[in-house]
């Protein structure tokens, strides 16, 4: 049946929507049919990419998150073709609402019994956001122990370290590593070249596929973006989440 990827992190501004967009593109490059769902009530993330043709789920009514809007998302998931993928980008402000929705109708078990595969994707950010993002990851691991988690390490605001310890040596990894399906390290590079190029690409809501053939993008930028993109696709392929 289908594979559903839920982007889950209670801390905003840590690159969750960026990872969601990378995941959509990588799965498509690997030959998969992908339906993106944008449930972020604050920022139209996946819906901002014209090429994605994302399904926009309007969660906010009269200034309040209305979880019944998730019903529309579920209808879309049930309509997926066998072997298709869904990528659901969920905003930080609706993190708790989505998890409560899962519990309300026992959704994860229902999807599993249908034959679907579900992954949570959680972003860990370095720097000042490290503690908060680790807390969000912990809540997923404890609240949904049967759902495998793909952990994305985003070092762009600082190294993901606790003293001299790397992530695989953190207490949270030691406690929950059996729940972690794979660890994805976002590529790093020169902040004045590669990282700037990637940020500008994301800011334009442009896909790697289009940027790599665009005459409006400088040759050196295209070369750097290709190296970055090849690494993302390699990681997704090796993580064994594409089916």
Nutshell version of this structure?
By secondary structure, the protein is of the alpha/beta class.
Work out the strand percent.
15-25%
Number of domains: 1
Can you tell me the residue ranges where pLDDT is under 50 for at least 5 consecutive residues? none
As laid out across the biggest beta sheet, the strand order is 3-2-6-1-7-8-11
Straight-line N-to-C gap = 10 Å
Q: Could you state the order of secondary-structure elements as H and E?
A: EHEEEEHEHHEHEEEHEHHH
How many strands, what sense, and barrel or not for the largest sheet?
7 strands, parallel
General description of the model:
The chain is α/β, with parallel strands linked by helices and 243 residues long. The chain has one domain (3-188): 3-Layer(aba) Sandwich (Rossmann fold). 39% of the residues lie in helices and 19% in strands. It contains nine helices and eleven strands. It has helices spanning 16-29, 70-78, 95-104, 107-114, 130-143, 171-176, 194-203, 208-211, 219-238, and strands at residues 3-7, 34-38, 55-56, 60-61, 64-65, 85-89, 117-125, 149-154, 161-162, 165-166, 180-185. The strands form three sheets. A seven-stranded parallel sheet has the order 3-2-6-1-7-8-11, with helices on both faces. A two-stranded antiparallel ribbon has the order 4-5. Strand 7, helix 5 (130-143) and strand 8 (149-154) form a beta-alpha-beta unit. Helix 1 (16-29) crosses helix 9 (219-238). The protein is globular. The relative contact order is 0.17.
